Amino acid sequence: MSSLWRGRLLAFVGVILVAFSLRSAVASLSPILAEIDADLGVASWVAGLIGAAPPVCFAVFGLLTPALERRFGLQRLAVGAMVVAAIALLGRSLAPDAVTLLAATTVLFAAISIGNVVLPPLIKTYFPDRVGTMTSIYSTMLAVAAFVPPLVAVPIADAAGWRLSLGLWSVFAFLAIIPWVTVLVRSRAAAGVAADGVEVAEPAPRALARMLRLPTAWAIAVTFAVSASSVYASFAWLPVILVDIAGVSHGAAGALLALFGGMGLPWSILVPLVITRWRRLGVVYAVAFTAGILAVAGLLIAPGSAVVLWVVLLGTPQMLFPAALVLMQLRARTHEGTVALSGFAQSVGYAVAAIFPIAFAVLHEATGEWAAPILMIGVLMIATIPAGIVASRPSTVEDEWERHHGPWR
């Protein structure tokens, strides 16, 4: 581990703290929304907008982040995102009314969106020799940060009030600022060299627009979309579906949803290592596709016979999330290519994820049953076949551009 840390401990700590702050900020609100509603009177339309804000902000600011990165630089943008996130987290806990709560939450998710995009390029910049290890640590922290806040938010709110429960997560965001500010202070920007001796290439314009014409970029975007869409749809509708078609109790449905969410943790640890050390990217896609299709078939044919198995299988395609994070770094060889690929893939993925739960509701309302929405997940899984074929090619987006459109710069 010393070789991982040597000369870049600040960057290591910074990645960990930013990763935890990104997901804990999202996961800490919904468990105590009832307590907030009792105090502020959160209208249903406000609650709906708060629920829709994450994927919408992630999609919009994923497209804007590459331009912001060219203007301010990767490290400065990371610092700025965490400063805004920390202030918004604190402001959200002090909100005097529901509209202010919504405004603070929207600003918070905009900052988180920028952090989502810049973290993969930061890992590639500071840990080019440890992409798999660092992505495993990063994605594991995201999974932990999604799991811990729901466990402690309600007990803290019951003991000390919802404002403390909501505001304490700002501490991690403020702490995340410290290592990156220190990195900036030490940075030899005038020489084009970042702290710890890491070279930072001068950004090239129009890299994001080029992603639209590159199959590899689309393959990674589809990979991200499959994972994000199945997760958002499942968190929105899986308990209701299981109660209706499998006959489980509401308590059991909640426990099964927790099982589904927990499936992301082992894959966050294993998948980056499988891809970078063992070079088995195709296996990841094959397992995700097979598990997803089997889950759909089980829920349609015999939903009550092995409901735990179907939920485990449905949670297995979450392995595509850390796979996409790794590919954002492996399938780009330049700094600007990595930023553009990260922004493009996450924007497309979260845009699809924002639509998917709504499509579930529309189909269910139109048909009066859950078969059509469940089949949607099967269609989604089929998209992993072409995405996996293209993403498995050992080529970067820069190579792809140069083969068909001339020099990258």
From TrEMBL:
It comes from the Bacteria. The chain crosses the membrane at residues 43-65, 77-95, 101-123, 135-154, 166-185, 216-240, 252-275, 282-301, 307-327, 339-364, 370-391. Its main location: membrane. The keyword Membrane applies. It is found in: Cell membrane. It holds the Pfam family MFS_1. GO terms for molecular function: transmembrane transporter activity. Keywords: Membrane, Transmembrane, Transmembrane helix. GO terms for cellular component: plasma membrane. The keyword Chloroplast does not apply. It is a multi-pass membrane protein. PROSITE patterns: MFS. Residues 7-395 form the Major facilitator superfamily (MFS) profile domain. This is MFS transporter. It comes from Microbacterium radiodurans. The lineage of its organism: Bacteria, Bacillati, Actinomycetota, Actinomycetes, Micrococcales.
